[in-house]
Amino acid sequence: MNTVTSRVREDFPFRDAHPDRAYLDSAATSQRPRQVIDAEAAFVATDYAAVHRGSSMATGAATLAFENARARVAAFVGAAHDEIVWTENATDAINMVALGMSDAALGLGGADARARFGLGPGDEIVVTEAEHHANLLPWQRLAARTGATLRWVAVDDAGLWSIDDLAAVITARTRVVAFAHVSNVTGYVAPVGDVVALARGVGALTLLDACQSVPHHPVDLTALGVDFAAFSAHKMLGPTGIGALWGRKELLDLLPPARTGGSTITTVTMESAEFLPAPNRFEAGTQPVSQAVGFAAASDYLREIGMPAVAAHEHEMTGLLVDAVAATPGVRLVGVPAGSERGPLVSFIVDGVHAHDVGQFLDDRGITVRTGHHCAQPLHRRLGVAATTRASAYVYTDAADVARFSAALAEVRPFFGADR
Length: 420
What we know:
Elements: H1 3-8, H2 13-17, E1 22-23, H3 34-46, H4 57-76, E2 84-87, H5 90-105, H6 111-117, E3 124-128, H7 137-146, E4 149-153, H8 163-169, E5 174-180, H9 192-201, E6 205-209, H10 221-224, E7 228-232, E8 243-247, H11 249-254, E9 265-268, E10 273-275, H12 289-305, H13 307-326, E11 331-334, E12 345-350, H14 355-364, E13 367-368, E14 370-372, H15 377-383, E15 388-392, H16 399-416
Parallel strand pairs: 1-13, 3-4, 3-5, 5-6, 6-7
Antiparallel strand pairs: 2-8, 7-8, 9-10, 11-12, 12-15, 14-15
Helix pairs in contact: 3-12, 4-12, 5-6, 5-7, 13-16
Catalytic activity: (sulfur carrier)-H + L-cysteine = (sulfur carrier)-SH + L-alanine
Organism: Microbacterium invictum
Cofactor: pyridoxal 5'-phosphate
């Protein structure tokens, strides 16, 4: 058994509850180790209280845990504690940036915010055709509200794009470039440094969808040079209901808050309000305190394993998944070709069998995978299919899981009579 898997496999109660199931859907939502479950439960049991409100001992203890969690998650991605904003999820984080830019275009936040973030007719927002809807729809709305033009980098027949493709789309009018670090369908790993260089060359901001990268290999957002990034706890062994927006501090302090209310302000009159610096200016209302504690515990757990070890393990498991798909007659690998760098996920098409039927067949045999368009309809439309099946690996995946997947996959086409 792989060293990483042998160290962590017993930490996951899901494995105890379902010993005969191979869970290959971590790209959608990962399982949680006992250490994360226990950390959140302990906080709820002994230190649960409102944060940043009042002066009681209970509030102080809860606030300390809340902000300590922020500092630990920030350190995990190479950030300062005040560069991490708690959000509902990564989708919410991206919307925060797009909605803040929309408000800046209206003059909210003042002249400096409008000059930095305000878009208008003639300005351009650039995405790729491979984006998750979370990194497409907010920019569609921003373009519609401001009169800016949404442009995109087309993908090829494999669903991939290159830095040369991006360079052909970026112009002197480009103001925002938003892209995924790792595609949740094709596994493509974006050349972040090259993208940042192109964007900076025309004065454009960059936003990185880091949902499929931060959980799986070492990521230092500051070193990458992007301006904003989004990632989620539930894809990295943590709880649902919380994600993170990272941004360069000077940008976060200038960006108008997308949501307003309690805990975000310094002064309120009946006519106006002045807002706190980041991150508090963005965290209106009651905060996800216990979720933040769980998020931090998940980052601690991964740090203890070591992200280089996590990446090496997943590289091995992904190679086995790719080999399983490539070795099965009538099954086609989507995206990055075998032997090339990819994220720890494998999407595929089974000739003659709909992806949903493939997923149900595998599920009946104790293998959990994802089916559908994976919130990337434009990409699937370009590929000429309505849906694909996706298997993904994480720290608890082992060779036996992949072998089980491989054996079941080989049975799909004969079961449905598609091999005749």
